[in-house]
Amino acid sequence: MSTEQNKALVRRYFDALNTAWQTGDFSPLDRFLAADYVYYSEPEPIRGRDGFRALTGAYRAGFPDVRFNVEDVIAEGDQVLVRFTGVGTHQGEFLGIAPTGKKITVSVLDLLRLRDGQIVEDWERFDLLNMLQQLGAAPVPAAAQAT
């Protein structure tokens, strides 16, 4: 696939992800994720479509109204870099944190590798500490509060 086709596929994926997040039905995303899909995270990679559903289920339980807004899509070869923002409200337990009702905004970088029109690898990075600070679950340094 061309880089433009890869970028278009990733945009369709994010549209489908937003729909899946709202409905709770992530099965339509299977057409975008290869059977051997790997999400690289700490401390261990998450493997396969079932692993993906478990991960997203945990986040969706805490933030059921999240909306992902794609800001930039850059592609070269079989890789697509996406910069997006996730916005949602903490309505359920997340990482042992009781619902706060607070709205959060998280900036994310996602590097995806595609093969045969599907996502096979996903390296996602976002500032979890900032997310926890927005929830009031982690302290904000005094210098940051003054700005």
Specify the number of helices: 4
Number of domains: 1
Q: How much is the radius of gyration in Å?
A: 16 Å
Helix content: 25-40%
CATH topology: Nuclear Transport Factor 2, Chain: A
Which terms summarize this structure?
147 residues; 4 helices; six-stranded mixed sheet; alpha+beta; globular; single chain; Nuclear Transport Factor 2, Chain: A; 36% strand
Concise summary:
The protein has 147 residues and is an alpha+beta fold. The protein has helices spanning 3-23, 48-62, 128-135, 142-145, and strands spanning 33-40, 46-47, 67-76, 79-89, 103-115, 118-126.
Structure description:
By secondary structure, the protein is α+β, with helices and mostly antiparallel strands. It has one domain (3-137): Roll (Nuclear Transport Factor 2, Chain: A), CATH 3.10.450. 33% of the residues lie in helices and 36% in strands. The protein contains four helices and six strands; from the N terminus they run αββαββββαα. The protein has helices spanning 3-23, 48-62, 128-135, 142-145; strands at residues 33-40, 46-47, 67-76, 79-89, 103-115, 118-126. A six-stranded mixed β-sheet has the order 2-1-6-5-4-3. Strand 1 and strand 2 form a beta hairpin. The longest helix has 21 residues, at 3-23. The chain is globular, with a radius of gyration of 16 Å. The N and C termini lie far apart (46 Å). The model has no long low-confidence stretch (mean pLDDT 94).
Q: What's the arrangement of secondary structure elements?
A:
Blueprint: H1 3-23, E1 33-40, E2 46-47, H2 48-62, E3 67-76, E4 79-89, E5 103-115, E6 118-126, H3 128-135, H4 142-145
Parallel strand pairs: 1-6
Antiparallel strand pairs: 1-2, 3-4, 4-5, 5-6
